[in-house]
């Protein structure tokens, strides 16, 4: 979705400013943006969220936590 929203070919965002711009672009394109949570699973140092995303796409996002308990990496997969 990063490629679609911002045209970033790598599909990768680093830093709060880039993430903020991504969400701003997403809300500008889809003002009534919402997601339907299906399932949340947990692993060692991570969680995976399975949900229905925009355009009817299903998504899984895996969030990895650092030693301070903050998310330091997210990997997203879409149908």
Mind sketching the topology for me?
Elements: H1 2-6, H2 16-29, E1 36-43, E2 46-52, E3 58-65, E4 71-78
Antiparallel strand pairs: 1-2, 2-3, 3-4
Strand content: 35-45%
Give, in order, the helices and strands: HHEEEE
Global geometry: globular
Low-confidence stretches: none
Helix proportion range: 10-25%
Question: Please, how many domains?
Answer: 2
Q: How many DSSP H or I helices?
A: 2
CATH hierarchy: architecture of the largest domain: Roll
Could you tell me the number of beta strands? 4
CATH level 3 topology of the largest domain:
Nuclear Transport Factor 2, Chain: A
Cα radius of gyration in angstroms: 13 Å
Mean pLDDT: 89
User: What is the CATH C level class of the largest domain, in words?
Assistant: Alpha Beta
Structural class: alpha+beta
Q: Give the biggest sheet.
A: 4 strands, antiparallel
Output the strand order for the largest sheet. 1-2-3-4
Q: Whole-Å distance between the termini?
A: 11 Å
Descriptors:
79 residues, globular, Nuclear Transport Factor 2, Chain: A, alpha+beta
Summarize the model shown.
The protein is α+β, with helices and mostly antiparallel strands. Helix content is about 25%, strand content about 40%. It has two domains: about 35 residues, no CATH class; about 45 residues, Nuclear Transport Factor 2, Chain: A (Roll), CATH 3.10.450.
């Amino acid at each position: 979705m990063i490629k679609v929203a911002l045209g970033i070919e790598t599909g990768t965002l680093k830093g709060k400013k880039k993430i903020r711009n991504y969400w701003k672009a997403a809300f500008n394109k889809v003002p009534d943006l919402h997601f339907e949570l299906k399932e949340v699973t947990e692993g060692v140092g991570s969680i995976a969220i399975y949900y229905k995303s925009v355009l009817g796409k299903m998504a899984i996002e895996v969030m990895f936590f650092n030693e301070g308990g903050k998310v330091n990496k997210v990997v997203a997969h879409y149908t």
